[in-house]
Amino acid sequence: MSDSTLKQPGCARFVFISRISPKKNLPFAIRLLGTVSGKATLDIYGPKEDQRHWKTCQKEIDALPPHVSVNYCGAIASAEVPGTFAKYEFFLFPTFGENFGYVIYEALSVGIPVLLSDEVTPWEDLQKRMAGFLPPLNDLNAWKRALQFCVDCDLETYRVLAGNAYRYARDVPSIEETKKAHREMFHRAIRMI
Fold first, then answer.
1. Digits of tens for pLDDT over the chain (193 positions)?
2. What is the CATH number of the domain that holds 153?
3. Which one of 7, 77, 80, 175 has the minimum C-beta count within 10 Å?
4. CA angle, 179 as apex, 178 and 181 as ends, to 5°?
């Protein structure tokens, strides 16, 4: 689990781990971080698949107030993802859609609460399980409230969220089980043709 002993009210460490492409909606995340009161850090990991899109991200970064810092940390290997997540407090991922979102599972599996767009992934009970937040993409105020909550929460509250995230991931079939089920489904479909 994350080293939550560092979480203090008034500051939060966010991470974004994914391809840097329009579908992942990173400029939206950066822009909204600029609205929080308190100190916020966002570290971005992933390949820059679309240079024009990265330029849009860079413009959003350049417009941020001084109490918000955003750093591009480069691409990382799959094996490094869980250890990288464990260095942060929240996974910020306002994607336009994911089939499953293995990276979401990886964050939860190390006890990292997730801020994820609603109705675009199979994680619709994330908020009910108090393992993260699912604000609608068209509700900027809901996103701002969620981000501000993350910045404002104290260590005790964070530990509850982190524990819920970890337990939620434990209740989800493992990635290997999911891959196996997908392979079996495809093999059945091929045999039917």
1. 555 558 999 999 999 999 999 999 999 999 999 999 999 999 999 999 989 999 999 999 999 999 999 999 999 999 999 999 999 999 999 998 887 788 999 999 999 999 998 866 678 888 899 999 999 999 999 999 999 999 999 999 999 999 999 999 988 765 556 556 656 666 676 776 6
2. 3.40.50.2000
3. 77
4. 65
C-alpha 38/C-alpha 8 separation (Å) is: 11
| Structural domain boundaries, residue 111 | 4-192
Tokens of 142: 């809901």
- Return all residues near 76 (Cβ < 8 A) that are at least 6 apart: 17, 45, 46, 84
Structure tokens at 5: 């002993």
- What is the C-alpha separation between 43 and 56, in angstroms, rounded? 16
Euclidean distance between CA atoms 62 and 154, whole angstroms: 29
The CA-atom distances, in angstroms, between 133 and each of 96, 137, 187 are 15, 12, 36
Q: How many domains does the chain have?
A: 1
Alpha-carbon span 130 to 113, nearest angstrom? 8
Count CA atoms closer than 13 A to 18's CA, side-chain side: 27
CA-to-CA distance for 180 and 83, rounded, in angstroms? 24
Task: Enter the tokens of residue 25.
Answer: 């909606």
